[in-house]
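hey so i finally got around to running the thing on that chain from the lab meeting. sorry it took forever, my laptop kept dying and i had to restart like 3 times. anyway pasting the input first so we r on the same page abt which one it is
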Amino acid sequence: MAQETFSKEELSRYSRHLIIPEFNIEGQRKLKAAKVLVVGTGGLGAPLLQYLAAAGVGTIGVLDFDVVEDSNLQRQVLFSTDDIGKPKVLAAKERLEGLNPYIKIVTHNVLLSSQNALDIVKDYDLVADGTDNFPTRYLVNDACVLLGKTNVYASIYRFDGQVSVFNYTNKEGVVGPNYRDLFPSPPPPGLVPSCAEGGVLGVLPGIVGSLQANEVIKVITGVGEPLVGRLFLFDAMNFETRTVKVHRDDENPLNGKNPSITELIDYQEFCGFSSNKEEDVKSLSVAEFLELQNSDEPFQLIDVREDFEYDISNIEGLHIPLADVEDEVDQIVSDKKVVVHCKAGGRSIKAIQLLEKEFGFSNLYNLSGGIDAYFEEVDAN
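ok and heres what got predicted. didnt touch it at all, straight out
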């Protein structure tokens, strides 16, 4: 492999790295030659991407399928108000290229799935997982293990953060633990809310994402000891940290003594989630819902968003946050049409599936696109 070279401008830019005796030009060459895939451009991905780009990682893959929303800006400092409505990967690419024009940004404006993960991950040296849901975490982990890639993991929730380095092969050829060694099975659906449902302190992902970037740089350059076989825990509320050991598990279905998983599986099913697709529930378009509102047909409207979302704006539905649906089921009628909505449709589908499965409702309809689509339609007219 040809040795990476630098222009005078690059040498000037990275000079603070170059004068570190343990890092120097060799460390910078390794960064320039590296290809890193960052999965997720949210709270963790924002600082992670910026520091990897600034450090001079030669090729950075940016994977996300979402668009920038106003609520993102409380913590996703990669974006600005002008980016609202843009695909996140494109907004990220523009920002990162402005930060460092000497690197290559590759965008993947897709939802990572069992069908495309291996094809995407295989082109990178390592993966940094900044996702916020269990199905994708297991998917990223399994793809990395099957392909022999290091997975630099981090997660955040409210005031708490975690960081670790999974599936790392040391100089002796020994492979470290992976995510399944730490969490052999996912928690029951709904037990651990997402950040959208449970919240997160805005500064926390900046702290944890920076620690994640630090581990990526260490893995690439070989400088220091990566966080292998250890899980770093950070409590921002009390400013406490601790590190717990993680060991290889002989029962790990991926690379234990008797592996049973040799290809990517259905991770929604594995984590106990239904497909969560709109075609799996009855639905109404905004236009159909407006017709229903203007008709004489009786119906009940239920809003399953959080309290603060309802306070910001609502269309006067009965307010039952998703986490409280089972406890408040007696408020939901069964003798007329019930329309359930959230911000964009995802949580209302979960609510309907839960109510149909556990309580036998057959009169529930999802409002397609949620309250966002409703106001967009109303404003357009």
